[in-house]
Specification:
Number of strands: 12
Order of helices and strands: EHEEHHEHEEHHEHEHEHEHEHEHH
Radius of gyration: 21 Å
Strand order of the largest sheet: 3-2-1-4-5-6
Distance between the termini: 44 Å
CATH architecture of the largest domain: 3-Layer(aba) Sandwich
Helix content: 25-40%
Number of helices: 13
CATH class of the largest domain: Alpha Beta
CATH superfamily of the largest domain: Glycogen Phosphorylase B
Largest sheet: 6 strands, parallel
Strand content: 5-15%
Number of domains: 2
CATH topology of the largest domain: Rossmann fold
């Protein structure tokens, strides 16, 4: 049995798809299971014991260098590499035109995806040989992905998240935390790929100060590429209660998350990592629906305002001053923090 999973991006969505991998391995222990993924997100899956091989594409890099002859050589080489592979089953868990085209490149008699009505980019359904329907009731995206396995007669709601970190990353995090004099701490994560998901850094800073005052806990502010200035603004407005985390890749961030008492964040990949690792989470949500995209620990808390224009799932607010997030104040978040720190 040879199976190809297709979920190209991004961090949170890859984390949400891991239970599908675990379910496939449990049902087909001797199968070859590969995963087609964007190169920039490979670290979420690298060295995963449930996987046989990562098949990588670099569509973002290709778009940036579209007119370079070297780019077209890379595209042709990647296309040929996928075309050389034959699978018994190809599962497109992303459901976009891009992912369905990539999935179709792999040779298989069974290209399985969601039904047209369940797709935002409905043309993707034209490239599937089999379709799985999803009911219209609110459900978390993890359950949606697991639903695709019904095409293989697998029915499960088990959520397991195999995440691998190298020993040297664990040791590096221990040295860094010792240098910062941190044993118990709360993590604040202000970043986000969409500006509409970013709660104001000054509010994060005030939250850090409130946590220090009420629980005598310092905060560690983590950040990704291009977010260091944002994180520094939190440190600067935290009344000396927050510390800036070092630059890390996504796998290097995991040891810091594992040791945290609490993880406070918007709807971002690191928040979903924290939830997968079993760390208490408070999610501060704006344009996305926490019922579908929220943290998934049994006791995780979400702060969300049910505004008239939401959830809109827009990367830019269309003229409403991002009211879904700007209307959330420290006083709205502190009760959720108290609830999770009391666990």
């Amino acid at each position: 049995m040879r199976i190809l999973m297709v979920r190209l991006s991004s961090i949170g969505d890859l984390v949400h798809t891991l239970p599908v991998l675990v379910a496939l391995r449990a049902r087909f222990p001797d199968a070859t299971i590969d995963w087609l993924v964007e190169t920039r997100f490979r670290d979420v899956l690298a060295s995963n014991p449930e996987l046989d091989e990562l098949v990588e594409v670099d569509t973002l890099g290709w778009r940036k260098r579209l007119f370079s002859p070297a780019t077209w050589k890379e595209i042709v080489a990647s296309t040929r590499a996928i075309r050389r592979r034959s699978y018994d089953v190809v599962l497109d868990l992303q459901g976009t035109i891009k992912s369905s085209v990539a999935a179709r490149l792999a040779k298989s008699d069974r290209h399985i995806g969601f039904s047209r009505s369940a797709l935002k980019e409905r043309a993707a359904a034209l490239l599937y040989s089999e379709h799985v329907s999803v009911n219209c009731e609110p459900h978390h995206v993890i359950d949606r992905y697991l639903r695709l396995l019904s095409a293989l007669d697998i029915e499960t709601k088990e959520r397991a998240f195999p995440l691998v970190v190298q020993n040297e990353m664990e040791e590096e995090s221990e040295r860094t935390l010792a240098s910062l004099a941190l044993t118990e701490y709360v993590i604040l994560n202000p970043g986000g790929a969409w500006v509409t998901k970013r709660w104001a850094p000054e509010k994060f800073g005030a939250l850090a100060a409130a946590i220090a005052k009420e629980w005598k806990l310092p905060t560690l502010v983590v950040w990704g590429p291009g977010e260091e200035e944002l994180a520094q603004r939190i440190v600067d407005t935290s009344e000396s209660s927050a510390r800036l985390a070092p630059a890390t890749g996504i796998r290097g961030l995991i040891p810091y998350i594992r040791r945290a008492r609490l993880f406070v964040s918007g709807d971002t990949g690191p928040m979903h990592l924290a939830s997968a690792l079993g760390v208490p989470v408070v999610g501060i949500f704006g344009p996305t629906d926490p019922a579908k995209n929220g943290p998934f620990g049994p006791n995780d808390a979400v702060v969300w305002k049910d505004v008239d224009c939401g959830p809109c799932y827009k990367r830019r607010c269309p003229g409403f001053d991002n009211v879904c997030l700007t209307s959330i104040e420290i006083e709205d978040v502190l009760p959720a923090v108290r609830e999770r720190l009391s666990v």
